[in-house]
Amino acid sequence: MNCPPSGAATPAPVTLVGCGPGAADLLTLRALRAIEAADALVYDNLIGDDVLHFARADAERIYVGKRASRHTLPQEEINALLVRLAREGKRTARLKGGDPFIFGRGGEEMDALRAAGIAVDIIPGVTAAAACAAAAGIPLTHRDEARSLVLTTGHGKPGAQEPDWAALARPGQTIAFYMGVANAGEIARELLAHGMAGSMPVAIIERGATPAQRIHAATLATLTARIAERAIKAPALLLVGEVAARAADTGASDTATSPAA
Ligand SMILES: C[S@@+](CC[C@H](N)C(=O)[O-])C[C@H]1O[C@@H](n2cnc3c(N)ncnc32)[C@H](O)[C@@H]1O
């Protein structure tokens, strides 16, 4: 391995690599090249073996995600790890599910690395909304049904500002809720309270674009019951809007088991 001793004068750059939704064939060519070239790979739950498989046999693989009862490594420790690897002169690929800059904390890692004087490259990836919509045959925008698309999170930072529910409930748009399963009850309640119809279609796409994919068709009124009866777990995306009516329900018949992420 080509690693100068710790404290090398010139830190190696760190690449934040968008790895897409979990299917190796949705990696970009640029992501693939960065994975193949890396001396060290730092990854978490959304990155599967079929993506790690492209790393060099001698590359260091460092897992920073949740394991059974253990929590994810705190963000500050991940930042410090990336800085340390770069200072050791290791070409480091920080592998991110989907796109690094969409609910991926890529911004926090980039800021920490730059503050430490380390160069950062960003490789965009296929984000869950695009991958899940394609897998379920749901056009995220449509001239007759949705002229805008909102990507939002169903799981804010503790103490974070309340979402603008009135803006989210506006007609003529599609809303993609990332990390929305645990808060589906609140999402449905607030959208209904802000004027959205109970009949509004919702597609729940579990492990989209992977072999374990399940697609569940629901409405705002049936959303929480559907999640409970099908034991739907993260990672899953909620697509809310008229366009979601196209989702063909595969969830009941599919026997995929999906461990929580
Ligand atoms: C921390 S966010 C990361 C998002 C990622 N950076 C992206 O651009 O897709 C994790 C959430 O993304 C969504 N997600 C990621 N991969 C998914 C997949 N294959 N199928 C469904 N949802 C997915 C889920 O809502 C999950 O809880």
Automatic annotation (TrEMBL):
Keywords: Cobalamin biosynthesis, Lyase, Methyltransferase, Oxidoreductase, Porphyrin biosynthesis, S-adenosyl-L-methionine, Transferase. The keyword Nucleotide-binding does not apply. It holds the Pfam family TP_methylase. GO terms for molecular function: lyase activity; oxidoreductase activity; uroporphyrin-III C-methyltransferase activity. GO terms for biological process: cobalamin biosynthetic process; methylation; siroheme biosynthetic process. Residues 14-223 form the Tetrapyrrole methylase domain. Pathway: Cofactor biosynthesis; adenosylcobalamin biosynthesis; precorrin-2 from uroporphyrinogen III: step 1/1; Porphyrin-containing compound metabolism; siroheme biosynthesis; precorrin-2 from uroporphyrinogen III: step 1/1. Its EC number is 2.1.1.107. It comes from the Bacteria. Coiled coil: none annotated. Belongs to the precorrin methyltransferase family. PANTHER family: S-ADENOSYL-L-METHIONINE-DEPENDENT UROPORPHYRINOGEN III METHYLTRANSFERASE, CHLOROPLASTIC (PTHR45790:SF3), SIROHEME SYNTHASE-RELATED (PTHR45790). This is uroporphyrinogen-III C-methyltransferase. It comes from Rhodocyclus tenuis (Rhodospirillum tenue).
